[in-house]
Amino acid sequence: MSEKTILVWFRNDLRIHDNEILLEATKKADKILPVYCFDPFYFKTTTLGLQKTGNIRARFLLESVADLRRNLQKLGGELIVRTGNPADIIPQVAQQYDVSEVYHHREVAFEETGISEEVETALWRMKLNLKHFIGHTLYHKEDLPFPIKDIPDSFATFKKKVERDSDVRPCIETPIHITVPEISEPGNIPMLADLGLTEPIDDNRADFHYHGGETAALQQLNAYISTIDLAPAQKGKHNDGPSRLSAWISLGCLSQRMVYHEAMKHVNGGHPSSSPLILELLWRDYFRFMFKKHGRQFFNPEGFKDEAPELAPNHAGLFCQWKNGQTGVPYIDAVMHKLNATGYISNHNRQIVAAFLVDQLKADWTKGAAWFEEKLIDYSPASNWGNWAFIAGVANDTRDSRYFAGVKQAENLETESDFINTWLPENSSNLVVA
Ligand SMILES: Cc1cc2nc3c(=O)[nH]c(=O)nc-3n(C[C@H](O)[C@H](O)[C@H](O)COP(=O)(O)OP(=O)(O)OC[C@H]3O[C@@H](n4cnc5c(N)ncnc54)[C@H](O)[C@@H]3O)c2cc1C
Question: How far is the CA of 97 from the centre of ligand 1 (A)?
């Protein structure tokens, strides 16, 4: 009888821990074929003249794929790396290695699902099945107390019902050994220049250094968990610093379930969301499920409303000044300089600069979201476009307005703070905001 080989198509699940497609493939097949595809779609310049992936996130991705390859090799496996359209590459590799099925984790945003639909169609022509798994959320879709179409639009209701009626599944075990076919050309991980990008210049003012991959992700999780006080948050306030886990979670170097179960060890019998870390992870789930429910509506300027927010006559110029940190409002400019130089700003600062773009400058929020898409090291479609739509006031439920609670008028923020001194260049130009 011929051997069965399953192709494991890695996308935003760049890890060997808690990875259902990897474990299932090792159980169901004699051999598995792990594949990662650098898709040129993600490295193009958009119609807005912005890059889909800036060089800071791209470098983090390259490091993450390299780490995945090393971790698979430690298990006796290998990672095939190719550059090209997955709808061409996956069927080619499947044919070359005579695979009988392809596994992947299902995505939620329309560009990502569009790519897997193309792959599915191409495989279908070869009479091969693309099997979809669910692996990007804390709560498994099938454990929710409601079907996707009935998920509450209010975060508060979603949280209450999910916490009352659902449990987070345990992590999936990591395979102890992987058998792969003989691979003659595993393929090189591209350089940034191959993707049309320049090497980022590390800014020595950065207060945190990111390195891509599961290995660094688990180190950061351990470091964070061991140093923070996970006691109940006071009136919903974070009682500890940000975990800095988002970049790894977004690429799937770290599973949210892993973070949850580690955090739960410190909750001391309390409610899961008494841990600020778990509460934040619930927001992430909420946006992913909202994208599953509502599709591409979150990407439209008008969102769920009849009209998009009003724009200033010179909104295009104001957007340029905002993105370059040249609004003349010191706090905003400092935050934007930090974002552009490091790829990371805190949730609070994301809210402030986003609200400033929408409410004060009256510029196009979708351009702001696209700028974040280029610059953020942790960009994730549902988290980014979902948060932006809320701040722009065009989301499905604007009653959950926690966003505005901490957002003072940017002009009133302390102009002499260390933060501004650190991140505001002396030659920052002045703009009078009407
Ligand atoms: C305009 C705007 C755009 C954003 N774009 C993104 C994005 O592209 N990718 C992204 O991961 N997060 C995004 N966020 C959410 C949030 O700002 C970041 O997840 C957080 O700042 C990351 O830092 P941390 O890992 O230290 O978070 P922590 O505060 O330690 O939170 C733990 C984890 O919970 C999740 N999380 C926290 N806050 C949110 C939130 N508001 N929405 C969804 N998930 C959350 C993240 O996975 C994060 O790693 C955005 C927020 C705003 C206001």
Answer: 39
- The percentage of the chain sitting over the pLDDT mark of 90, rounded to a whole number, equals 83
As a whole number of Å, the CA-based R_g of the chain is 22
Mean pLDDT score, 88-92 = 98
Residues 168, 123 share a domain: no
For the chain, the first-to-last Cα distance in angstroms comes to: 76
- pLDDT tens digits, one per residue of 220-246: 999 999 876 544 444 444 446 799 999
Burial of residue 188, with CB atoms counted within 10 A of its CB: 0-12 exposed, 13-18 middle, 19 or more buried: exposed
Q: 25-31: list long-range contacts, CB under 8 Å, 24+ apart.
A: 25/103, 26/175, 26/177, 26/178, 26/179, 28/4, 28/101, 29/3, 29/4, 29/5, 29/100, 29/101, 30/3, 30/4, 30/5, 30/179, 31/3, 31/4, 31/5, 31/6, 31/179, 31/180, 31/181
- Report the SS3 class of residue 381: helix
Q: Which atom of ligand 1 is nearest to the CA of 281?
A: 34
In short, whether 243's Cβ falls inside 6 Å of ligand 1 is: yes
Average pLDDT over residues 298-306: 95
Distance CA 290, CA 112 (A): 15
Same-domain pairing of 322 and 280: no
State the average pLDDT over residues 364-370. 98
pLDDT tens-place string over residues 150-166:
999 999 999 999 999 99
> What pLDDT score does 295 carry?
87
More confident residue, 415 or 142: 142
Whether residue 198 is contained in a domain is answered as no
Say if residue 328 is in the same domain as residue 360: yes
Give, for ligand 1, the residue of 378, 379, 384 to mutate: max count of ligand atoms closer than 8 Å to Cβ.
378
How many independent structural domains does the chain possess? Answer: 3
Q: 15-53 pLDDT, tens per residue? A: 999 999 999 999 999 999 999 999 999 999 999 999 999
Distance CA(335)–CA(83), nearest Å, equals: 34
- Is the beta carbon of 362 within 6 A of some atom in ligand 1? no
Residue 215 CB-density burial (10 A; 0-12 exposed, 13-18 middle, 19+ buried): middle
pLDDT at 265: 86
Q: Are residues 363 and 410 in the same domain?
A: yes
Domain residues for 370? 300-423
**For residue 105, which of 69, 77, 142, 130 has the smallest C-alpha distance?**
130
β-pairing verdict for 129-133 and 80-83: unpaired
